[in-house]
Design brief:
The structure is a homooctamer. By secondary structure, chain A is an alpha/beta fold. Chain A contains 11 helices and 11 strands. Chains A, B, C, D, E, F, G, H: InterPro entries: P2CMN_synthase_LarB, PurE_dom.
Chain lengths: 244, 244, 244, 244, 244, 244, 244, 244
Amino acid sequence: MPDVRDILTRVQSGELTLDEAAVQLQGFEDLGHSRVDHDRASRNGAPEVIFGQGKTPTQMVEIMGSLASRSSNVLATRVQNAAIEPILAAFPDATHYPASRLIALQRNVPAPATTNVAVVCAGTSDLPVAEEARITAEFLGSPTVAVYDAGVAGLHRLLASIDTIRACRVVIVVAGMEGALPSVVGGLVDAPVIAVPTSVGYGASFGGVAALLGMLNSCASGVSVVNIDNGFGAGFLANRINRL
Amino acid sequence: MPDVRDILTRVQSGELTLDEAAVQLQGFEDLGHSRVDHDRASRNGAPEVIFGQGKTPTQMVEIMGSLASRSSNVLATRVQNAAIEPILAAFPDATHYPASRLIALQRNVPAPATTNVAVVCAGTSDLPVAEEARITAEFLGSPTVAVYDAGVAGLHRLLASIDTIRACRVVIVVAGMEGALPSVVGGLVDAPVIAVPTSVGYGASFGGVAALLGMLNSCASGVSVVNIDNGFGAGFLANRINRL
Amino acid sequence: MPDVRDILTRVQSGELTLDEAAVQLQGFEDLGHSRVDHDRASRNGAPEVIFGQGKTPTQMVEIMGSLASRSSNVLATRVQNAAIEPILAAFPDATHYPASRLIALQRNVPAPATTNVAVVCAGTSDLPVAEEARITAEFLGSPTVAVYDAGVAGLHRLLASIDTIRACRVVIVVAGMEGALPSVVGGLVDAPVIAVPTSVGYGASFGGVAALLGMLNSCASGVSVVNIDNGFGAGFLANRINRL
Amino acid sequence: MPDVRDILTRVQSGELTLDEAAVQLQGFEDLGHSRVDHDRASRNGAPEVIFGQGKTPTQMVEIMGSLASRSSNVLATRVQNAAIEPILAAFPDATHYPASRLIALQRNVPAPATTNVAVVCAGTSDLPVAEEARITAEFLGSPTVAVYDAGVAGLHRLLASIDTIRACRVVIVVAGMEGALPSVVGGLVDAPVIAVPTSVGYGASFGGVAALLGMLNSCASGVSVVNIDNGFGAGFLANRINRL
Amino acid sequence: MPDVRDILTRVQSGELTLDEAAVQLQGFEDLGHSRVDHDRASRNGAPEVIFGQGKTPTQMVEIMGSLASRSSNVLATRVQNAAIEPILAAFPDATHYPASRLIALQRNVPAPATTNVAVVCAGTSDLPVAEEARITAEFLGSPTVAVYDAGVAGLHRLLASIDTIRACRVVIVVAGMEGALPSVVGGLVDAPVIAVPTSVGYGASFGGVAALLGMLNSCASGVSVVNIDNGFGAGFLANRINRL
Amino acid sequence: MPDVRDILTRVQSGELTLDEAAVQLQGFEDLGHSRVDHDRASRNGAPEVIFGQGKTPTQMVEIMGSLASRSSNVLATRVQNAAIEPILAAFPDATHYPASRLIALQRNVPAPATTNVAVVCAGTSDLPVAEEARITAEFLGSPTVAVYDAGVAGLHRLLASIDTIRACRVVIVVAGMEGALPSVVGGLVDAPVIAVPTSVGYGASFGGVAALLGMLNSCASGVSVVNIDNGFGAGFLANRINRL
Amino acid sequence: MPDVRDILTRVQSGELTLDEAAVQLQGFEDLGHSRVDHDRASRNGAPEVIFGQGKTPTQMVEIMGSLASRSSNVLATRVQNAAIEPILAAFPDATHYPASRLIALQRNVPAPATTNVAVVCAGTSDLPVAEEARITAEFLGSPTVAVYDAGVAGLHRLLASIDTIRACRVVIVVAGMEGALPSVVGGLVDAPVIAVPTSVGYGASFGGVAALLGMLNSCASGVSVVNIDNGFGAGFLANRINRL
Amino acid sequence: MPDVRDILTRVQSGELTLDEAAVQLQGFEDLGHSRVDHDRASRNGAPEVIFGQGKTPTQMVEIMGSLASRSSNVLATRVQNAAIEPILAAFPDATHYPASRLIALQRNVPAPATTNVAVVCAGTSDLPVAEEARITAEFLGSPTVAVYDAGVAGLHRLLASIDTIRACRVVIVVAGMEGALPSVVGGLVDAPVIAVPTSVGYGASFGGVAALLGMLNSCASGVSVVNIDNGFGAGFLANRINRL
């Protein structure tokens, strides 16, 4: 959101005309189907990210083009199969991460953060979500450390890497099934823990609900939760905290 | 429903025979599989609309034919793929809207309403539902104004169009995910707001339940809700209110 | 929300100082615990209404006093027992409706609407919610017609009053248990129907969920739904539509 | 279950040896994968019916052969596609009802009941379930009367057939969406009403849950409910009551 | 519902005036808060029953008085504590059943049915609901046989009474917890089984949901279900079937 | 259940009359409200236990008396407040455990098992359920070892006692909130783990559902689950396994 | 988990260097995507089992190779179609069980247990889950006895095999729909009962939830529950108890 | 968790005896009912906090005493009424916050953080939870800024304070009903947003579920969620992030 008071001051001083003020207050490009938010980077520190689900390939290419014209880096999540080739054709320098359904266009490497984000996951089946988190954090400039397949049924696998995890500034913990790993990690570190429930499981896992509830009810302090399978959200938030 | 007291009066006066009275009380055509409601326009102001889900192509064509024989305008919703070609073959002047799964047969353009219906949607992924609402309202004679991709994470996109929205007599707000947009719009306008939750989202959106609950619990007054993805219902109701 | 463009113009012309503009942009009184919204009447056509649940008696009296100082009419909903006496002591001209948990302070009778709102309810047990809707609509200036205990298990009770209902411009239908009444009414009238599920029922009514789902899935067009037991919301919206 | 006291008496009298008694107590044929219940007709008045879901084609043919060897009539429900041809090849005199997924082998027409079962359904989309109920009742010997597409949004369609329905001894009412039809029918007849919720609907119908809850909470007395889409169960029970 | 065709005929013949016809079409007494349905006995074979929940003592006494003035027998269910004394004071010949929360006023003993209704319950804790069913059936004229505390964890307790149960024309089965008893009984009898889930249980019984689901999914044929704790509904339906 | 074949043999040999056989097949005492299962000890290794919820004090005393007359040891669970004094008055040698709502009457100390049952609980708030499990196992003859307040947020508290736990033959793990403890314990021991979710928690713990789902989805093998707060069930099963 | 105290002692005595101690504390092989737990057999009595869902074929082959290099027997569950051929190509002596989606590599036949595990299932449609349990128990060395298609609607089918079941040391009961079988079996045996709900059913079975709730609320003592369709978990636990 | 490698080194060097090492590895005091975690401050940066729900007054006082003996500052949450007086008697310098059910004992004021935490809440009814968050953060040393009653139905109330909020390093957003506020705030700031759903609402708010789902599905990036009404968890995490 533009700084209203600043614009008011500049209107008052005659520095801005009324029309110029209105344009600055708007801050988006209208494609008809989409209003691309060019103001987001100034407003909350990172460019708008494209949510791919439910968008046609043409819409995807147009939105990505609009963003790329202003912000040199663009990230698209949950890119649907039909949109992959059109996007890669339009943006040959974009990178596609199939397992995590991400497409990243990085023309300006951001200055890397000086501290790391740990990405811990409970089982190999949670890898696509964990990678979505890890790639997002890296894309936004946070170096990451991956500790994968460290579920609570074999605690020694986690404890072997606990010093590595403790050396990070933020910890992302990804788990499906009962979602117990964030509670155990949360009891062992003093960094903020971002818990990501995954839809891995069957039966009474209810597509990740069991893991989500487990994480929301964590008996460890310092843990917060994002949506089921929302690796992007965790990576985004981890980078934001890591850069504080 | 026929006017029972009027029919009673006319039976008493001899104007109607008992059989004629019985026929008038019935008011539908029986196709065996379906009882097509020819009385609905007189009863609640708009012709019966065909719900396409679960009906065979043959049933669809027969019902549509029955309605078209009496009412010049027919609307079919959620038309399943197998029924599209048979319907378009039988009614070459019908129009198919693929994204919204509507087929409209409009032989008599209704007198347009003198006020407008606003259709606001939160994200590009909500477009199919928003368009179902918009086309329905237009089909029934209400001019519409579309404000798309105006979600609450970039408020300036909504505020830029708020004067346009305020100029409408009824406002439809379509949103998935957390369904917050109707609350924000409801706080900014003094028109009735019809909220439509969509199934856009993932994880704990539970196919639109999160958006539905958000809208039912709206802290803004003047908001009511229709079923998840029920663009048709919103467009129908908006036109009804717009024509009061 | 104040008219930003108008304020900008007046700032530019020097009609407003920067500070005056900021005050006008604010539009609320800050009581510490509450920010009382004095701008709401201009913004959406009715004064702010006080939601009584979870507020202390002192907070209630202070908020009510702040609103009463600007807007002569004040409505409080879901007033908790402990707050009743303090409010009535502070505002002796206020009226308390115990069954519906409303307190109304009406110092200026609004010009009555020229059309009526019908309030139909399914059973005697739904009366408190129906009355909350009816009193709210009357408070805001819409005359109402009550048709109570007209549930679908005895259709003749409804049909006997159908002409009365059809003469109204908006219809509120209140029902618990299976919530079938709005579908039946919706098939018989051409006015907008606002359905209010109540928590009346037991067992698998789940505190009104059965009625809520029934209403959301209504096979009748022209029906929209508000939250369980939200008589206030229905009355508010009905008046808004009735005054269009 | 065999008559234990009778067998005891016959063992005591020497009429039965211990082994013969054990065989009679068993009352089923063991196919390894299935224990086919040959005793069911004597125990609860109708032969075992085969639930087709989750069974392989070979299992289906073997179970059907085992039942056909003792009971001349066999009914299979929810027959999966892969099993249809093998069954029809093995039992050329069987009849397949595709919409309702039934296969019936009727070698002995039962004496027809002297009273009728009404099968009422709300919409054309509910036909497959209604037909499953109707065919089951007919298979077991109850004549049926079908009143289809008589949903509550067009009450006159139901009222036109109410005398036909009242002439039946049992009434099955099939409905999806809000499931309101059984309440309305239940208020108009004095026969037992068996309500069948269907999974027809979308959004907050949750695959038939809304209709199920509506029916369980029916304000009309004399209504009971079977599982979602369980047309077979309704037809079976209707015949049982009809033959009392 | 009055016989519309008959009234039409009598209007045509001059036997009825228009006003008399309207009165007959109405068939209820309007108490303001309630529309007491005097037509129900003719329409569906039993007088209206008063649902006590959510009604004030005054309303209860008035409705009961209205019904008692026309129908000599009146039954009130779920009578709330505050209403018991006022009702018993107004109707000294009424009987109160505290455990089942029923009040019955029986001035005309109906001709008893010639066959019996079995009421089977799983545990002693289910007694209040079982008794509500049993008293209702007796009130309406069906003799009953009670088999209590016959849960499936001690099958011999059920089998000891199976001949008694089999001698009845209808069987009500009341169970909480896992609700397995109707499936077992349903496999042993050839009478219709009305299953009543109770809210007895704890933890994952969710107030009777586990029992309800168990009964809806019964693998035994011939079983239908009423709402949780709805003993009245089961008794009412059992009598209706028993009198066929 | 009595040994049917044995009784058959004895009937055949004339050792039993038909009446005697019938009596032996029954195996319960009928108190009217309850059928007390005197056969259970022979059938499944432990006397019937009285579920106190929903039973009147008089019923409790009568059932307890019936059981005590045959089986010297009696256990009652979830004893409601009103029943405590009457029971203790009738059975002065009974012991009441208020926190766990148990009353135990132990006149014959069973031969103790030679191996131990571990009862581990996550937090102090889970103590009432853990104690219900522990006292039940002790009552049935299994020595127990308690390791309390060993939740996963402070792993060292668990690891400090892991050797003690490993020395037991069966492990009961009681936890509320996210219910993660059974997964961690299950990964550290080779004994069967019985997980007991408790209703301790708030918000999205939903009365123990979060813990229940966590335990059902445990990534550790060798874990099974009982109902929420069902300490009795866990203690009973643990003793059964411990005595194998 | 390694014996920390033992390692401490050996470090103190100089028997272990610090590095050797660290290696022993780790106990897993890190494949990057997976940390294969080589310590599990010593820790909880059986080798790690591979959960096939969500793993790529390459990951499956690598994990299986890692385990096979240390532990001669490997079991993979829920093997996805794409992984079957690669695994069988890499391990030609592995056995694939298609219905149960298991692949077993058994190079060392374990010493068989001297007692048996009963696997009872309710219907033929439950066979895949029952077989998953049975094969798992056999793989781990427990002989099994199968009693299939013994649902509660035909009790005699169960009673005919009850002696066979009673002769086993542990009983697994597999059932879908209402899940009543474990309660009935639990009332007839004195062995521990492991209940496995299956997703067999339709409508309000909700993918196995009805069966799961039924089992959790079992009125029989000595019953515990594993996740929906978790045949593996039941077989694993049954073997563990059987070998106590 | 103690630094295992460091202890190993010190054991190896003889600096620690085996017993001393064991003590250091334990790190808690065992009160029988509770294992008080004295190691938590070193392990995750803040002393153990006492969860008051379900603990007896005596347990509360003992745990608080154990913690106070080592860590000078102690915080107890959800303190139940019965425990308040005993605690205040035992620790006269403790402070009780009734609305938020906290008791704080602060003997050492921590060095305040140099940046602020914003606590924003939607309505006055959310104050108890917002205050729980604010007091927790202050207790741990983070200065806070409160912006209360800034719900989305009156956006200007939020926008008036947006500069204040943007000046904070972390933002806590507390909201009930539809829980839309975090999405709107998240779109306006570049700080991490911790969303706290409250149980404020009625009907389909389901005790905070609607708000929880709304927050989990937030379309704004940088938002994570804690449990319903978990003000403590939000304040704890906010301080942790604020001190990074």
